[in-house]
Amino acid sequence: MSRYFYYLVFVNMLANVVASVPKILLAKKSEGAIVSMILAIFIGLALCYIVARFFNAFPGQGLPELMGKYMPGWFGKLLLLFIAGAWSVAGLITLVTYSFLLKRFLTPDMPLVFITSILLFFISYGILMKTSSVLYTVEFVLLCCLPVIVLIMIKSYTTPELEWDFIREAMMHTYELPSFSALSASTYLFLGGFNLIIFNRFFTKKHKITIKQILLIGLLGGGVLFTTYFIPIGMNGFEGIEKIAYPWIFTSDTLRLDLGVIERILFVFLILYLAISFLSILIHWHVVLELTKSVITTKRFKFKDINLTPYIIVGVIWLGSIQITKYLTEYQLSLFSSYFFNLLLCSLFGLISLFWFILRRAKS
Amino acid sequence: MPFKNRKSDVEVELEWLINELKPSSDILHKPLRLDDKQAELVYIKSVVDGAQLQQIVIKPFFELASEQHVEAYLKSLPNQQEFTSKEQVLLELTKGSVVVKLKDELLLFEIKKVNTDTVRETNIEPTIMGPQYALSEDLATNLNLIRQRYHKPSLTVETMEIGKKSNQSLAIIYDEEYVLDGVLEQIKSQLESLDEPVVQTSTQIQRFINNQKRSLIPIMMMTERTDRVVYNLAGGKVVLLLDGSPTTIIAPAIFWDFMTSMEDNYGMYWVTKFSKFLRYLGLFVSLILPGLYVAATSFNPEVFRVELALSIAGSRIGVPYPSFIEVLFMLIFMELLTEASIRLPKAVTGTATTVGGLILGTAATEAALASNIIIIIVGAVAISTFVIPINEMSFAIRFMRYLLLLAATLAGLAGLTLGLIGLLMYVANRDSFGEPYFKIFFKKKQAETRVKPS
Amino acid sequence: MIKKVQRFGKTLLLLSFVAMLLIQSGCGFKDIDKRIFVLSIGVDHTDNEETPYRVILKLAVPSGSVKQSGTEYTYLTKESESLSTAIRHLKTQTDKELDFGHAKVIVFGEGILHHELKEIMDFFIRRRDIQMVSYVGIGKPSAEKVLKAEPESEMAGSHALFNFFDQNGVESQLIVTSYLFDFRRRVFGNGIDPIMPVLSTNEEKKRIDINKALIVNDENKTVELNQKQTAVYNLMSNNFERYDVRVKNDDQNFTVAIDTSEVNFQIQVDSKQQPIIKMDVEAVGIIQESDRETDFRKLQDYSEAASKTIKKDLTEVLKMFQKEGVDPLGFGLRYKSTRLNNNKRNEEWQELYPKATFEVNVNALIKSTGVIE
Fold first, then answer.
1. Dmax of chain A from CA atoms?
2. How far apart are CA A10 and CA A17, in angstroms?
3. Which of C3, C7, C11, C32 should one mutate to test binding to chain B, selecting the residue with the greatest count of B CBs within 10 A?
4. Residue ranges of the domains in chain C?
5. Which letter does DSSP use for residue B120 in this model?
6. Which residues contact B189 (CB under 8 A, 6 or more apart)?
7. Residues in chain B closer than 8 A to C103 (CB atoms)
8. ipTM computed for the complex
9. I need a surface site. Which of B65, B319, C55, C222 has the fewest CB within 10 A?
10. What pLDDT digit, counting tens, does each position of C23-57 carry?
């Protein structure tokens, strides 16, 4: 697989460490979170493998092109719009979460709408870029973040305050039936590969998909899941952990770099996650933009040879996100994200059967 | 063709040439006659090397026995030029050629007088190791310099005229074997469609064929170093060389090219890695430091250590303006200082820097117009800007700094981070003649400079 | 002409956008010299039931040159019904914005511990700008007195209390370091009890002593540890690897300085009646002081004597914990974390702990007799 595929998967994994996923998992800490996570690794890897295999069969073509070829027009368009809707919600969740976070921790005196607008301003530029440019940006930012992620990982596993007894206490809850919302939330970490529906346009060569590569993703995902769930418990205790609004932000504040330039890891973490959330939104909404562009092909939105469609979509995104950030509360956000994850996991099986259908059509 | 007709044809052409050039006082039309030998010379005195003309054409004319001998001799001269049309001849005359009418034929010889062919020492990109001489301002000399460093039959030099009025010659140099055809095509077509009356320097070309009306970052690299030219030719790039300009431009150029100094190829592995690291650090520092100061003092003083927060707060006591105006104020003065020292004669530069840097800085803190810490920051920023080896890039960075300052002023650390990502996206979204401008290369250099499939 | 208008319009649009943003930025923009930094927070109990909380803030007042004149401190005090109302009132007492971002020490007065701990802690946890890595301690005789004490050694720009807790400054076996997040998880968690250092000051307020610790159990009962017990606790919890032990042998008394130690414990419940808490101690040290000449060849004997003493010390403290019904080491937590959850583990342990017996194995190794023999 091309290295850019890993970036897509990895960004999605990392971005959700800070968002609602740990919150949902920790809420289910004594209702089968651990079993759900283990199950999620297998389901996630299977989904990852399927999507990679499928798009590898059509190098250089995104889902819109395939739909156009093998599906009746109106049905394909409807489906694409539906997918675009799902993806825009995915980006929106990250956006709203991070806006809340910024408001709470980094710039508390700033109005929420202003924070969201600043984020949107840069994202709008980003999603209008070429697909390849998006990937180059993702690669560079991710590589810059990697040392910091490793540092935080090392720090959190080696700090003497990490109480393994709390972690073991959490592990004693292994024998419980899995919970669907925990399962869907943790499977969501592995779904970055589905961005191929647009980004496959960039992968013009056929690649080999080996077991090793899938195992690598599994290893990374497992590590991320383990860290996401257990480090907050180890630092903040098993009881009362579900009461914390942002488990990972809270946890990062319990780490301290005695001799670092920045003493409180909290700020390093916030900046790091600003970058990673940005990438996640960028990827998701770039997909949304491209999907919608492929659906709306009328010549009406034109002004002196400039196709206005993308700008109109960006405008809609602005309006929608600002309104939603204004009215959503933190509780609603986590509730809706949980619903979204559940729904997404169900509809993914629909998407997979669509893949199967296209594959069969293409063969005949 | 009948003899008589032809003769008049030549006469007419000569007449036409003289008439075209007539009003100038430095045009010379000189008939030579001895016994039955006769010839006519037409040239512009101020661009032709008189001594050489005397040596090559006039003296042999009188010494050789007959017109046949003269003709044979002249036609064997290496600096004879092709004769395609009378317009072309006219153009060549303005560049320093001589038209000789011998018998019924017009012969064209290049006997230029060039006063700009002295090879200068490297001035813009000095290095400790590597060649110490740069280019001259004469195309032929420069071509010679490059050819002498790159001996390969596949090295191709194409020339063309650019500038609707000035008609400067421009050489397009590339290695046939490695050059990317798409890039070459694109450069050529853009050069041909160039519609400018006067082109003076090669850097101007870079601005004209940039695709974008307003651009911030250079997508072609200007250099005066022959070793850089050769290094890039070998990498399959196209080099443009304008007559009368002591610098070449190289295309396509991507971001990493601008951060490479030629010494990176000459020094020891770890030494060059370290200096490379320093350079990127300098780039980073000069970009974010002003913004970081504003973010840390006005939005998030809790990010850094308490001692630092207290000492910044202490040094800001009495400063009347908010932090971003303070930073802007000192930065602008620093920029003015830099600009001044570029424009000033070398002898005065030292004084200007001392007066500006030392006295202004101390006085500003004494007068509580700026805090001590900001002086340190501005100093650090100024130094680290100069670490970037290619000037155009460091000028671009200079500008980007203010964008980041603005972002930090608006939204603190978050703004700074987003601004940095925004700049990154801007850079990543550019391409240089179809080559992605800001892409990370993991493979070895050999794999990246592709050999053209044959 | 149209083009010109367009270009002009574009520029105007951009300019107005920037101007709009600049006006907007007034909200978050606050220069550092308009802020005043809170370095430590103290909470005392008043006898007045209407306004039970007394909040003391220690603020750093920056001065022009930190090196020459140093940082000066100022204090704000307010009694109120809740912590946040107190802070709101205190805000009006300064001309600058109170910034809690650097508040690293939280001192509770002893009286306040009779309140519900979760309630007091809530304010500090909930506020976004108070660090989770702040140090928590108990002030004696009151938090206010401790905060206002300015030890002679307190240097310019560095807060003495920070240095006490920070492992970069003073290192001592008598200082228990408790972070806010650690305090929180111990308060919330069953089977592990919060422990905090006791900061005491004398009347002249020229000295702060931190050499004792205080444990609060689930029923809000407080147990104060003396110096020796504090040192033993630090050893057992692996907080601090050093431990000085005075060995009283038959013929010879000497002090051993342990510099490396590791303590592990297990809980064995074979029969419900008699759970065993097994503790293994590995300690390595040298002889620091002796009243007689030491013999190089008798190191083995010295080691054994030291082991015996350490074992005695530890067992004493453990028995004391058991008697008082406190559990700062987390035996209950260990019990839960090694047995599958059945939702009754807490109750089980409540019954088992008073019946437990302790088995302490000490393996002390004295490496050297110091520079002299």
1. 67
2. 11
3. C32
4. 31-225, 227-373
5. P
6. none
7. none
8. 0.91
9. B65
10. 655 566 778 878 888 888 888 888 887 888 888 88
Closest Cα partner for B30 from B9, B58, B6? B58
Among C133, C188, C339, the residue with its CB nearest the CB of A254 is C133
> Which residues from B are below 8 Å from C28, CB to CB?
299, 411-412
Contact yes or no for A6/A192 (Cβ under 8 A): no
CB contact under 8 A, C32 and B316: yes
Number of alpha helices (DSSP H) and beta strands (DSSP E) in chain C: 11, 13
Residue of A nearest to B428 (CA): A133
Measured between CB atoms, does C19 come within 8 Å of chain B?
no
The residue among A288, A286, A351, A295 whose CA lies nearest residue A77 is A295
Residues B383 and B286 in one domain: yes
Pairing between β-strand C135-140 and β-strand C195-201 as defined by DSSP bridges: parallel
Domains of chain A plus CATH, in order, are 3-363 (1.20.1730.10)
- Judge whether B117 lies within some domain: no
CB B388 within 8 A of CB B275: no
Same domain, B276 and B401: yes
Chain B contact for C181 (CB, 8 A cutoff): no
CA distance B61 to B67: 8
A158–chain B nearest CA distance, Å:
23
Facing B306 at nearest CB: one of C29, C37, C63: C37
- Strand C97-99, strand C35-45: pairing: parallel
Say if B440 falls within a structural domain. no
* CB atoms B314 and C32 under 8 Å: no
Beta bridge partners of B101: B40, B106
How far is Cα C56 from Cα C93, in angstroms, rounded to an integer?
A: 12
Instruction: Give the pLDDT score at C158.
Output: 61
Would you call C360 helix, strand, or coil by DSSP?
strand
The C-alpha atoms of residue B362 and residue B366 are separated, in whole angstroms, by 6
Cα–Cα distance list, B93 to A105, B116, B165, B343 (Å) = 74, 18, 15, 37
Amino acid symbol at C98: L
Overall domain count for chain B:
3
Please list every residue in chain A whose beta carbon sits closer than 8 Å to the beta carbon of residue B412. 106-107
Spatial separation of the C-alpha atoms in residues C18 and B119, rounded to whole Å = 49
Q: How far apart are CA B309 and CA C37, in angstroms?
A: 9
Contact yes or no for A105/C28 (Cβ under 8 A): no
Residue B448 within any structural domain of the chain? no
Helices (H), chain A: 3-18, 20-27, 33-56, 63-70, 73-101, 112-127, 131-158, 164-171, 180-188, 196-199, 211-236, 247-253, 265-295, 309-327, 330-363
Q: How far apart are CA B239 and CA B150, in angstroms?
A: 13
Q: Which domain holds residue B161?
A: 139-252
pLDDT 10s digits, A60-112: 888 888 888 887 778 888 888 899 999 999 999 999 988 988 888 888 888 88
Choose, out of A6, A98, A118, A133, the residue to mutate when testing the contact with B (most B CBs < 10 Å): A133
Give pLDDT, residue C352. 84
CATH topology of domain C227-373: GMP Synthetase; Chain A, domain 3 (3.30.300)
Q: Is B373 within a domain?
A: yes
